[in-house]
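fyi for ur records
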Amino acid sequence: MTFPLLEVSDLGLVVGQKRLLENINFKISQGEILTVIGPNGAGKTTLLRVSLGLIRPTSGAVNLKQKLTIGYMPQRLHLDPTFPLTVKRLLALACKNDMAKVLPLLEEVGATHVLNSQMQNLSGGEMQRVLLARALVREPDLLVLDEPVQGVDVHGQVDLYQLISRIRDQRGCAVLMVSHDLHLVMAATDRVLCLNQHVCCSGTPESVTNDPAFLELFGSAAVQSMAVYVHDQNHHHDHCESCHRGAANDR
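which gave:
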């Protein structure tokens, strides 16, 4: 029997008078890519932070497999533009000055050419690859990526999603990521969790894009612009009876 690496049960989060998350349930197993999508303000990044133990939930539980190693790629890295920091130095710090690890990590993400570059001078795509390399330092069982293609052009987004898939295939790790790029991410994930404070719908990319709750949240035009990759695996698909309530709350 395969046990999930991460399982979230009946999760809720209230901050002040505002309910940010309600009755969230999902799990992710080894070798699986699960992508969380949803409108702005849906609680996607908050869900990642609660799942990582950075925020304590108001209700429910987050269960992690024993001795689970997690690699985290934040949505953005805030750097002082006056502080000199090279890619080599950033990764050396993450590797605890084990320089033998730095070049192989950059090779894996296709960014060896920026080894001696200043972080402030990187392009959007180069920055994301370096942050991905840093997330891989601990050889994670679970890779958590918050908007991994942010600030990257469409061609670069396709390349990055393909890279994430290759890393999953080669390392056998699971990937939990947040994305806004509906038309691209659907071809790069095994399962989708559509979030709007609660789970509107979940399942394979094909099943989610045909779900009434998804259509109500994003509109039929969004579906028409997508290239949906059809998976052979069968996944559980939960329907939401009142997605419109969450969409109304998000406005």
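Residues 154-171 form the longest helix (18 residues). thats all i got for now
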